[in-house]
Amino acid sequence: QKAEWAKLVDEKTVTANGRHVELAANIGTPGDLQGVTNNGGEGIGLYRTEFLYMGRTELPSEDEQFESYKAVLEGMKGKPVVVRTLDIGGDKELPYLNLPEEMNPFLGFRAIRLCLEQTDLFRTQLRALLRASSYGNLKVMFPMISNLQEFRAAKSLLLEVKEELIAEGTEVSDSIEVGIMVEIPSTAVMADQFAKEVDFFSIGTNDLIQYTMAADRMNERVSYLYQPYNPAILRLIKMVIDASHKEGKWTGMCGEMAGDEIAIPILLGLGLDEFSMSATSILPARTQIKQLSDDKMKALAEHVLTLSTNEEVIEAVKKK
Ligand code: PEP
Ligand code: MG
Fold it and tell me: Does this model's pTM top 0.90?
C-alpha cells in the first residue's frame, strides 16, 4: 500500500470525475516542511503559529517571527500557505503572559480575544507576517472568531499595520487573502454574512464539535458526545460551504475531520474545496478521493443530512 501511495506524491488530487480539490498540510514549525514535501502536500492549510510562542520565557521578537514565516513561505515555493495568528489559551498556556486562571479556559480569554486586547503583541505578529508576505503565497487566518466585529477589528489592525510598513518602505504583497476559522457555532450560523467580508473560511472541527456538542475535547468522560458525524455538525459544515460558494469564496477544513476516511466522502459531496490534515494522512486521502465520484458523494451527503445520529451516518458511509 505504501508503494501505491508513493506514486501519488507529485500528483494533483482529483475525484473520479476529474474535479480538483486541494490537499494541504497542518504544520507547527518550519521543521515540518520536509514532511509536507515528502507526502505531496499541495499547500499549507494551517500553520499553528502558537508553537513559536511556547516553551520559552518571553514573547518571540518580530524578527524571529519574520524568519519563521519567511522560511515556510519560501519553502512552499508559491503554493498557498495559510498562517493562523496566535491561538493561545484553552489547552495552551503562556506562563509569561501572567493571565489569571479561569474556570472554563476553552470558553475564556484565548486566541483573537487576547490578540484584540493585547494589541502590541498582535501588531508584532502582523508586522512579521506582512514583511514575510513578499516571499510566497500568504493567506492570513484569524482563530476563534465568534462575531463580525471581531473579524472587522482584526482586519482593520492588519490594514493599519500594512499602511505603516508601506510608509516605512517595506515591500508587502498586494494579494494576501484574509480569512477566518469557523470553529464557533455562532460563526457557522452567520456564515452568509461573514462570506461577504472574508476571503475564505477554514472549518476547525476540533473546536466546532466541542462547542456544538458542549463536550470538552479533552475530557474522556464525555468523549462519547464528541461526534464528528452528528448531522448537527454536518449541517453546520454545509451552511458554511454553501455560504462561501454563494459569494464566490472558498472553504477549507483544518480540523482532524478533514483527513478522516469516513468524513472525506461526505465532505466531497458537500463541496469542500480544501482539506488540510497531518502530512502523513495526505497520500491515503488522495488515494481515497481518486476513487470517489462527485455525483455519488453528493447524493450520499444529501442523504446523511437527513439522518438522526452519528452512528446512522457512519453506517450509511460504510454501505455506500
Ligand atoms: C480546530 O479547532 O479544528 C483547529 C484546527 O484548531 P486547534 O486544533 O489548534 O484548536
Ligand atoms: Mg481550534
Answer: yes
**The cell 467580508 sits on which residue?**
197
What is the atom index within ligand 1 of the atom nearest the CA of 46?
A: 5
Q: Which ligand is nearest to the CA of 145?
A: 2
Proximal ligand: closest to the CA of 255: 1
Distance from the CA of 210 to the center of ligand 1, in angstroms? 10
Residue whose grid cell is 466585529: 149
State the DSSP string of 158-217: HHHHHHHHHHTT----S--EEEEEE-SHHHHHTHHHHTTT-SEEEE-HHHHHHHHHT--T
Ligand 1: atom nearest CA of 48 is: 9
Q: Please report the DSSP string for 79-133 in residue order.
A: SEEEEEP---BTTB--GGG-PPP-S-GGGSS-THHHHHHSHHHHHHHHHHHHHHG
Are 38 and 279 spatial neighbours (Cβ–Cβ below 8 Å)?
A: yes
The 10s digit of each residue's pLDDT in 190-202 is: 999 999 999 999 9
Cα 168 to ligand 2 centre (Å) = 34
Residue nearest to atom 8 of ligand 1 (CA): 206
The H or E element that residue 301 is part of is: helix 294-304
What is the number of other CB atoms lying within 10 angstroms of the CB of residue 162? Answer: 20
Give the tens place of pLDDT for each residue, 11-39.
Answer: 999 999 999 999 999 999 999 999 999 99
Contact 227 CB / ligand 1 (< 6 Å)? no
HSE at residue 62, side-chain half, CA atoms within 13 A, is 14
User: How far, in Å, CA of 123 to CA of 125, rounded?
Assistant: 5
Q: How far apart are CA 167 and CA 13, in angstroms?
A: 42
Q: Distance between CA atoms of 281 and 170, rounded to whole angstroms?
A: 38
Ligand 1 atom 7 nearest Cα: 206
Question: What ipTM was estimated for this complex?
Answer: 0.99
